[in-house]
Amino acid sequence: MDKLRCRGIRGAITLPGNDRENIMTATKRLLKEILRTNEVEIDDIAAIIFTTTPDLNAEFPAAATRELGWPQHIALLCGHEMDVPGSLPHCLRILMLVNTKKKAEEINHIYLEGAKKLKENKLALSGDKA
User: Fold this and answer.
1) 124 and 25 in contact (C-beta within 8 Å)?
2) pLDDT tens digit string along 30-53?
3) In what order do the strands lie in the sheet with 75-80?
């Protein structure tokens, strides 16, 4: 029998601007895509860490989970990414920790919009193929 393990699922999306509506819409889209692609049940989520680039500060991305009606027991944390010169602007990132029987290589990390560049950079650095 496969053991239940805690796995991290990464996700990122770029936003067209810094306002509440953009942050909430993008966060919900990314969360839903992570769940759908990885066949995650909400009850299997242990915690979610949200980060934004410093140019996104109009709303806490974690607020989107409450609008989606997700349970209060999911641990949520928001923070800002390091302000590295030349880094991708207007970017929201998620690290979702889930309890699953999937192997690490079965996890699908989700990169949407301009954040697809982040996945390409990771693949180039690791030598892996998509």
Assistant:
1) no
2) 999 999 999 999 999 999 999 999
3) 75-80, 45-52, 91-100, 5-14, 110-112
Q: Which residue has the tokens 């410093």?
A: 54
- Residue 97, H or E segment: strand 91-100
> What gap in Å lies between CA 2 and CA 21, rounded to an integer?
41
DSSP 33-94: HHHHHHT--GGGEEEEEEEE-TT--SS-TTHHHHHTT--TTSEEEEEEPP--TTPPSSEEEE
**Residues paired with residue 93 on neighbouring β-strands, in sequence order:** 12, 51
Per-residue pLDDT tens over the stretch 72-109: 999 999 999 999 999 999 999 999 999 999 999 999 99
Q: Does residue 91 contact residue 13 with C-beta atoms inside 8 Å?
A: yes
HSE-up (13 A, CA, CB side) for residue 110: 23
Can you read off the two tokens belonging to residue 52?
Answer: 């934004």
pTM for this entry:
0.89
In the chain, the domains with their CATH numbers are 5-126 (3.30.1330.40)
